Amino acid sequence: MMLLEVLGEDEEGNRLSDLASRTGLAPSTVHRLLTTLEQRQFIRFDPAGRLWHIGRQAFAVGSAFARQRNIAATALPFLRRLRDQSRETVNLGIADEGEMLVVSQIESREIARAVTHVGGSVPMAASAMGKAILATYADEDVTAILACHGLRRLTANTLTRRAGLVAELETVRRNGHAVDDEECQPGLRCVGATVYDHQGEALCAISVSGLATRITGDRIAVLGSLVAEAAGRLTLGLGGILPGHIAAE
């Protein structure tokens, strides 16, 4: 599993010696495991550069995680439309063990753009998608998540105190969208909103992300409306129920 994780992090490939160093395993053990994984097509070997890469079977198994929720395929046209409206990179993520896992992404057509690799994850409290989902939780549930996973500092702007996050979540509830103000990566801002399931509970979230020089304070409100509208359309497209509709019923 460590070998697969390391190989999945580096698109350029790794030599056997590098894998042994990064995993702490003996070279002989690494070679034996690599051979088995290659036979099952979880990894592949490039003899020209003597580099090991992630294989197609790893993708097939990993894709099943998203397919279980039947989200990514349905979301694609909604994400593309939002990308075209915002001209920024659009992300779809699900909450998993206190982090937001990016399961789908439509890149901006701008030359300089924000890109978080599909399969990457960030702490919920440091991401727009994560804060959008946390804002739908009861206070005791947020407290339980923080007690388990804490508030890890990623940048100078990352929220590291519970009181700060609680106040931020109140703002999210009022505005209908969440903002990552260079809290995950310096120079990048994101605006996110929640997508709901058939019970009106948070299913996943979507966001637009881009350079802080483009996503200025004045533009955040505009993007927030676009993202919230797209999240609402996707909710209905997935057979979900918006919280306001539940109250009306």
Main beta sheet, described?
Answer: 6 strands, antiparallel
Across the major sheet, the strand order is 5-4-3-8-7-6
What proportion strand?
15-25%
Number of domains as seen in the coordinates: 2
CATH architecture of the largest domain: 2-Layer Sandwich
Look up the CATH topology of the largest domain: Beta-Lactamase
CATH class membership of the largest domain: Alpha Beta
- SSE sequence, one letter per element: HHHEEHHEEEHHHEEEHH
Distance N to C terminus? 48 Å
The number of helical runs is 10
The pLDDT mean sits at: 89
Overall strand count: 8
* Rg (CA only): 20 Å
Fraction of helical residues: 40-55%
Q: Report the CATH superfamily of the largest domain.
A: GAF domain
Secondary structure category: alpha+beta
Shape: globular
Gist of the model:
Keywords: DNA-binding, Transcription, Transcription regulation. By secondary structure, the protein is α+β, with helices and mostly antiparallel strands. It has helices at residues 2-9, 16-23, 27-39, 56-67, 72-86, 128-134, 139-149, 162-175, 217-237, 243-248, and strands at 43-46, 51-54, 89-96, 99-106, 121-123, 178-181, 188-196, 202-211.
Describe the structure.
This protein is α+β, with helices and mostly antiparallel strands. Helix content is 46%, strand content 20%. The protein folds into 2 domains: 1-62, Arc Repressor Mutant, subunit A (Orthogonal Bundle), CATH 1.10.10.10; 69-238, Beta-Lactamase (2-Layer Sandwich). The protein contains 10 helices and 8 strands. β7 and β8 form a beta hairpin. The radius of gyration is 20 Å and the shape is globular. 33% of the residues are buried.
